Amino acid sequence: MTFIGASVGGKQVVYTDGKRYLWMLSFIPPLVPLLSYWLYARTGAPIVTLIPALFIFGLIPLFDALVGEDPHNPPAEVVDAMEADPYYLRLARFSVVLTWVSYVAFIAFVGFYDLPWWSYVALLLGVGTIDGGALLIGHELGHKSDNLNRVFGILANNSVGYAHFRVEHNRGHHTWVATPEDPASARFNESIYAFARRELPGALKRGWANEAERLTRRGRSVWSIHNEILVGFALTIAVAAVLIALFGWKVAPFILAHHFMGYYALTQANYVEHYGLKRGKDANGRYLPVEPRHSWNTNHIVSNLTTFHLQRHSDHHANPMRSYQSLRNFDDLPRLPSGYTGMFVLAAIPPLWFRTMNPRTLAWAGGDISKLNSGMDR
What we know:
Layout: E1 2-8, E2 11-16, H1 28-43, H2 51-67, H3 79-84, H4 87-112, H5 117-132, H6 134-142, H7 147-158, H8 165-176, H9 192-217, H10 228-247, H11 252-274, H12 301-305, H13 313-318, H14 340-347, H15 350-364
């Protein structure tokens, strides 16, 4: 697809998006578990249940290392035309369908087959993390203002039961990002496990407070169908009830564990995205505006294609309404050494994470630890 922009120096800007069809790689992660189930049905070999976890935590980081990074930006003159092209949003909306297929297939699989305990653990780790990618799609669509994309965003979030995500992210995280007040911004020297204990309840509490405030301001009851969070949880419970009716009570703990892993997948992304970074304050004690430098960035091609450019997080926070296909790279940004899934592996082992990330974070602050988000200056 060729986009035509304004003229520069008397010459019209013409641009072909080389990633246009590569974005379909985002369809692969939710299809990988289906491959695993098919292979098990054909062979009866439990070893194939390791495939989703090996794919997300091994194969994608390996491809990131082999294929490398892409710092390329579309010309500013064609961004409006790219934003107006409905193709990109259609891809994101179709991905929502695939995540629901992956979720339902997982519950059907564990309900139908008796597996060794380690297969259940491997599947929950791999499939739960992959399906947690639905929140990345919900993140993209949740920033749109039209009803269609809002509905698809809500459906994406609720495939893992995270009904409060859109509200909390848009009204909470984007306001307080890279500050000690934000439960979704990791602090310097905070392990992912300590962060999860703070972020998971903190996000729910703040999301509910923001939704209650919105409804109260509009003169509506918090306990009503106008409450997006309640509607989302009702959808999650209704789907769970149908799945339990179809496959028995055996699947109930797997539904809960699947959703928890989806939550934790988002927690891992939040941990990586702003670790230790902090916005300064003006003379009046107010936080300065969010800049690209307040988010960790990575241009690793493979993981970016499978996460709708979420890893160009710096531009997203500086320009929240910018669509994924138009997100830009900047010079002099805090950079991650790997894509997100590779960083998730590091985060799971705190000494490795601190050894890798603390020097980079201190360098960002010019060696001044007081400029970092340590949680001590609230």
